[in-house]
Specification:
Strand order of the largest sheet: 1-2-3
Structural class: mainly alpha
Number of strands: 3
Distance between the termini: 59 Å
Shape: elongated
Largest sheet: 3 strands, antiparallel
Length: 226
C-alpha cells in the first residue's frame, strides 16, 4: 500500500518502518496491543524543525533583496497548518494514515490538524531515512508552486526601471540573453546578460530565468549610477 505513496512523493524508503511510523497516529498506537508501535508525534516534532529550516533556506537563496521581516512572514505562510493540510491533500496522505477506531469514525483522515502533523512527520521520516538532500527535494517541490507568485511580486522590478531609462533615448535597443543554464532540475542556476545595443551592461544569476534577468537589470542600473 505504501508503495503508491512512495511513487507519489518520489522517494523510496530504505527503512519501511520509518514510513510506517510517520503514518501512525497516536490513536492507533494507543489502541494497539503491540506496545512496540509508536506514534508519529516524535517525527512530527523533528519535521517541524526540518521544514522550517528548508523553507528558510529556500527563501534566503531566492530572495536576496528581501529583508528578514518579509522572509519570516513568507516562511510562516508555508509552515502553518492550513498550508500543510493543503500539501497533504495534494499527495493523498490521508488515505495512508493508520488511525484508531475513534478517529476513523469521526473522519480523522480529513481533519486538517491530523493531516498537517502527518505531513511534518513525513518530512522528518524522509530526512532521517535519506538525509537532507531528498528532504530538500521533497519540500522544494511544494515551495516552488507555493511561492512562485509571491516571489515574482516581491523581487524588485529592476527590468521596468531600466526600460524606463532606456526609453528616454530613442533608437537604443535593450535585450536579455541567456548565457548559461546549469544544475539539476530542482536546483537550476541561470546566467543572463542584458545588452544595450551590442554592449553587455549587466550580468545576473538566479534560480529562474526571470530572476536572473532582474539581477542583470539591477547590475546595469548600478553601472548607470541608479
Amino acid at each position: 500500500m505504501t508503495e503508491a505513496l512512495e511513487k507519489t512523493i518520489g522517494y523510496t524508503f530504505r527503512n519501511k518502518r520509518m514510513l510506517e511510523n510517520a503514518l501512525t497516529h497516536s490513536s492507533f498506537a494507543n489502541e494497539s496491543r503491540d506496545k512496540s508501535i509508536g506514534s508519529n508525534e516524535r517525527l512530527e516534532f523533528l519535521g517541524d524543525a526540518v521544514l522550517g529550516l528548508l523553507t528558510a533556506e529556500y527563501l534566503y537563496s531566492r530572495l536576496a533583496s528581501v529583508p528578514e521581516g518579509e522572509l519570516t512572514k513568507l516562511r510562516a505562510t508555508m509552515v502553518c497548518e492550513k498550508s500543510l493540510h493543503g500539501f497533504a491533500l495534494q499527495i493523498g496522505l490521508g488515505e495512508y494514515l493508520r488511525l484508531g477506531r475513534g478517529e476513523e469514525n469521526t473522519k480523522g483522515r480529513e481533519r486538517p490538524s491530523i493531516l498537517a502533523d502527518a505531513f511534518e512527520a513525513l518530512v522528518a521520516a524522509i530526512y532521517v531515512d535519506g538525509g537532507l538532500e531528498p528532504a530538500c527535494r521533497f519540500v522544494g517541490g511544494f515551495a516552488d508552486s507555493f511561492f512562485s507568485a509571491k516571489i515574482e511580486y516581491l523581487v524588485d522590478d529592476y527590468k521596468t526601471a531600466l526600460q524606463e531609462i532606456i526609453q528616454k533615448n530613442p533608437g537604443e535597443r535593450l535585450e536579455y540573453a541567456l548565457v548559461s543554464e546549469s544544475g539539476p532540475d530542482h536546483d537550476k542556476l541561470f546566467v543572463v546578460e542584458v545588452h544595450l545595443n551590442s554592449n553587455v551592461i549587466g550580468e545576473g544569476r538566479g534560480k529562474s530565468k526571470k530572476e536572473a534577468e532582474q539581477m542583470a537589470a539591477k547590475e546595469a542600473l548600478k553601472l548607470m549610477g541608479q
